[in-house]
Amino acid sequence: MTGESHPAHERLIFCCSGASNVGVLSFQAAIRLAQEGFGAFSCIAGIGSKNLPMIRAAKSAGERVLIDGCPIGCARKIIDANLIPVERYVIVTELGIDKTHWLDIEDSDVETVVKEVKRPQPLQG
Q1: Is-contact 106 22, C-beta < 8 A?
Q2: Which end of the chain is more exposed for a tag (fewer CB within 10 A), N or C?
Q3: What pTM, to 2 d.p., does this model score?
Q4: 42-53 tens-digit pLDDT
Q5: pLDDT for 73-115, tens place per residue?
Q6: Is 91 contained in some domain?
Q7: How far from chain centre, in Å, is Cα 68?
Q8: For residues 66 and 14, is the Cβ–Cβ distance under 8 A?
Q9: What's the total number of domains in the chain?
Q10: How far apart are CA 33 and CA 116, in angstroms?
Q11: Residue 48 falls within a domain, yes or no?
């Protein structure tokens, strides 16, 4: 089994969009993944606001992808607080990208995050 274990139409992508370069990277990577057809971009703010239809949709998705900018893990905390499982979790700073409070990003860094999200996942079990 490869990282493509669930059809893209069953995969939801959530991300941090914090006020730092890695927040912007998380957001831009999620957009690119959705544009490439890897999954549907979904709203972490809607989950955080306790929007019940959005929470139900997240829980019923075939796979959930979560991209956080840094180890503070704001998006992860929102997902966990709503008891939503996550199958793919990427923290941008763990990819060798330093966090700054400048909002400028490099396209090559977006590509690094996208590649990591798409990397085949090990079998569970």
Answers
A1: no
A2: C
A3: 0.91
A4: 999 999 999 999
A5: 999 999 999 999 999 999 999 999 999 999 999 999 999 999 9
A6: yes
A7: 6
A8: yes
A9: 1
A10: 11
A11: yes
